[in-house]
Amino acid sequence: MDIKVLEADHFAPYGMVIPTSNADDVSFDIKLKENSSGWRIAILEVTNRTTKQLHCHPDTSEVFEVISGSAVLLVATAENPDNVEAFLLDKPVCVNKGVWHSTIALSDKATVKITENSIVSKNTHDICEMKPVVRSI
Length: 137
Fold this sequence. Notes:
Jelly Rolls, 5-stranded antiparallel sheet, 11 strands
């Protein structure tokens, strides 16, 4: 499986690439708002180079942002969890509710900040082993 460049139009079926601004002044710009019971922030240490399972959360969107290292985000639509695409996670993204996903490290370890609803239900889906291949990205 080839790793794709993370571009807004290619990622749109799964969620949104969170836009950043390069403003010279200090600003507070809300990019995403979820009406829920509250959000939580977690740190995920990713060391796996392959995966055999995807997860989805039908009740919450989920933000992924690499803090250190290099990681790949695997995603698939709710309707077709076996049609997996891999994106280089070099920008923060918000994965839509119900989208199947998993993360894989490209470096020895990748640290990923995750923001999600404080009440999370999780479904799992077994897939054949996925190991993304780095080509010219």
